[in-house]
Amino acid sequence: MSAGSRRFLNVHEYASMEIMRSHGIPVPKTQVAHSAEEAGKVYKDMIGAGNDCVIKAMVLTGGRGLGHFDSGLKGGVHIVSTGEELTDLAGKMIGNNLITKQTGAGGLPCNKVMVAERMYLRREMYLSMMLDRAAGGPMFVASPAGGTSIEDVAEATPELIFTRPIDISVGVTDADTQFIATSLGFSEGTEVFEECRDVVKKLYSLFREKDCTLLEINPFAETPTGKVMVCDAKINFDDNAEYRQGAVFEYRDLTQEDPREVHAAKFDLNYIGLDGNIGCMVNGAGLAMSTMDIIKLKGGEPANFLDVGGGATEEQVQRAFELLNSDNNVKAIFVNIFGGIMKCDIIANGVINAAQNIGLKKPVIIRLKGTNVEAAKELIKNSPIKMVASDDFDDAANKAVKIANIVSAAEEVNLEVQFS
Question: From CA 328, how far away is CA 351, in angstroms rounded?
Answer without folding.
Answer: 19
